[in-house]
């Protein structure tokens, strides 16, 4: 059996992972005995056209040395692990599957190389908070010291675990396991990078945080419930985290946002009565990681947990097969919160359920032989969401692998479908109580709260026909293709997709995150339309510029000439984007250009190009020149094509450029001097 049996790979070729390396990587995987037909797909990160959602949902692992590829955001949403090529090499060398998280190429997971364990001097509440924190920022945690442990968190070294770590370090003659105070981990998160451990030795009281500020929580006042049972050292760090991102932590009479562990208690009930956003520490850390506000119920483990175990779950012992990385961890957490037992290994007379991503492999084979119930993850998720064990003979739970569509990927079950009145849980993200309603503002005849014509791109959330009708009622029209009336692009970030680029040619007024539509919909569902004007989400809160770290995001350096300008780049983009950018050029598009010449031509034409020719080595003549400059758009390595173009364009003013020249020109609203291969 192959080491990678059951996996389907997508390998992203980029400047960090060349075509030669990608092919060699494929050969290495196959050399292990891997023979799944069509199980290894190689794609260039410069390709504009993403792998279809259905095709991506079948991928179990993405190998890439960069996060700059169009599928990355959806891969995160689908919990598909993304690892550097070193993971494949190291796994083959060790003949075992290495920890996926340690190989993440995403710089925001700056704790990806960290594996923590907590000593006896760390109380249970602090331990749970620290585990949530390290997990959120890419690291892992264990209850016991292991070969992978990098850090032991302690406030006192007088216990067996600390003595073992000290003895191990002495035997190795170096600090293999760093023994640090909790503040090391929390200050690293406050600083958004891994701090030096030497300053955080047990016994020291100094702190060296370098706070990174934002307006993420501006205008929000949090109440931190005491049911976490955390120490003052941890709670003060949480308060710092909230305050450095524009929020406040205050008493119940001043708060409008609740963070607690369980769905019980007076403050939890008050938060629901007042319709405050209600979440837990997972929710807080997720927002800090992504620098984005999210409704707490969208991801089930972001909402406070039920305090008592689910009835009947004490008799359930769950194992999983072909779930890996975050999806595996997510399912394990669900099982344990519900009161069941999660086991790594299948046991004939103990394991009651096997969750199956793909119906292959040893575990699946033996589960069938031993009459262990084989189900998909939906059984577990819906049991948690409805807080009632679902019928494990339901045919919906007996579909595996390709039989499940993208909408049913791990983590896509919403908690909101399962909240019952007996739990007194209201998932409304609005913080305005009906008892505090102001006099209604009268709208002008035929006027609506918004005047927006928007296009969506790169968004994982799909809106129903009913949602679109509700948007229309408040003045938001969602279109499929860029039109002259378009004034808004809604996307999770600055993208290189066809829709995003073409839409910039329409001189949009707004660039917004998808949370704008989600919050608008939540507001519509909780308020009458004629009262919507008073409570409508403010557009400026959702500006893309507020959710981009221009200094640290490597994509910004590739798109903007001067990333140090920060949000001003987005202001310039909005103010100066227009449909005449390429009107001074006649374009020849290489027939083999990534993304396809037809797609590239349509983008160039949307910015004013009048003449656009698909060009190859068989082209005998160039069309009559209309604009001032001829352009050849091709790959830098395609030297024969360039030589052929220069011969046909002899005596004329021409430029030979890469696709990145087009992209960078669009985002800087002028013809840039980068990515020019040759010119006359």
From TrEMBL:
UniProt-annotated stretches for the region Disordered: 422-443
Pfam families, alphabetized: BRCT, PTCB-BRCT, RTT107_BRCT_5, RTT107_BRCT_6
InterPro entries reported for this sequence: BRCT_dom, BRCT_dom_sf, CellCycle_DNARepair_Reg, RTT107_BRCT_6
Domain BRCT: 1-105, 106-202, 212-294, 305-397
Xref: PROSITE patterns: BRCT
Biased composition (Polar residues): 422-436
Signal peptide from the UniProt entry: none
Record's protein name: BRCT domain-containing protein
Species: Pichia angusta
